[in-house]
Amino acid sequence: MYKLTKISRAIAVIGLSTAVFMGHSVAATTDGKNTTDSMSIDRNVATNMVKNSRAIKDSSAIRDSSAIKDGSAIKDGSAIKDSSPVTNEVSQKLTGDSQTVTSLNKLLPTIKYTTDNLPEVAQKVNAATWTAGSEIDRSTGTKLQALLNWHHNGVGHIDGYWGENTRKAMQAFQKTNGLAVTDTLNSETWQALTKDEQLTAQPVLVSYQLNESDVNIKTTKIPADTNAKAKLDGMYYERITEGLAEKFHISEKYLKTLNPNASFTAGETITVYNPGNPNTKPVSRVVADKATETLYAYDDQDNLIASYPTTVGSTATPSPTGTHTVEVKVHEPNYTYTADDGSKSILPPGPNNPVGSVWIGLSKPSYGIHGSPDPDRISRQASAGCIRLTNWDALSLLGVIKDGATVEFQ
Known about the structure:
Elements: H1 9-14, E1 18-21, E2 24-27, E3 47-48, E4 67-69, E5 72-74, E6 90-91, H2 99-107, E7 111-112, H3 120-126, H4 138-150, H5 164-176, H6 187-193, H7 197-201, E8 205-209, H8 212-215, H9 226-230, H10 240-247, H11 252-258, E9 269-273, E10 283-289, E11 294-298, E12 304-309, E13 311-312, E14 322-331, E15 335-338, E16 344-347, E17 358-362, E18 368-370, E19 387-388, H12 391-398, E20 401-409
Parallel strand pairs: 10-20, 18-19
Antiparallel strand pairs: 1-2, 3-15, 4-5, 6-7, 8-9, 10-11, 11-12, 13-19, 14-17, 14-20, 15-16, 17-18
Helix pairs in contact: 3-4, 4-5
């Protein structure tokens, strides 16, 4: 279980970057550097995840329940028209001036792409369709995963294979659209997925020219020892391709398969997955379903608007029960690990931090919704009580979930 040190209102007002309060370490994160940590946390070992003093919103009520990115608070969005998931050579650059759209545009990278000179394998994926009784090969599987994602039913990373996360996303889509929930793809579901002709025609695999910011990133070797991790400047990606895979929501293996001769250097054009645009409707309630390992997101009219594959507890370290609320939202948190002997190690922020790039703390002390240093294993591993998402899903949720939103464990 990843534990969050609850910062007192007094400390929130003072705005200390480093403090000690009631025996818990409270330390500021570094300047937004990305980092990586893949260690497992034993439930019997006390752990604390601490939030950056920049991520504390000071209001008249002196609340400590918001996140700040680049000095501006991530606030609740008002009722807005949902931005279209259809992109036109630019993904994750949302239109509008609502607080939700503003937050998402800060949190998610803008992706400019083309469909020029696509290799045959990409053209085959983009043209793929499915008919009853036909096999879901990798081309069709990639198209299916994309359509589910674009309907805001997340499949985890894109790898082109029919698997547990794809099946769960399909079932969430069926639930949203009033279809029969099935274990296999059927004609009714495919027709519903492809009903929007513009969305269906959107390219799944696209050409993207790497720039300096894509490849000139800090990388590091993540040590196994916790004390050694705490000495790192940041828990960065270990490889450029790891960072690219996360940016494009694709498995690193699939990225390399699509680009067998790539050197991944600035100026090079590679084939990537087009992530489309995220859900922009404010989320008032989420339900963590332990049986399906899916997080369902609802608007204030109780409409199901998005779903995310998740890891929710385990038999040995179960998640809490009942209903709780969102109290803290943090982008790029650090993490305080407390060993059996009481010694503490503060791990710097980053995508490979034990809680990834996001912490959404709950009114239930020490529990939250957070990212993951290991997106390939979402729904394929046990968590220690919290709700674990891929970093990109956690970032998308961070941009739309309301302060005080209801979090239910079922």
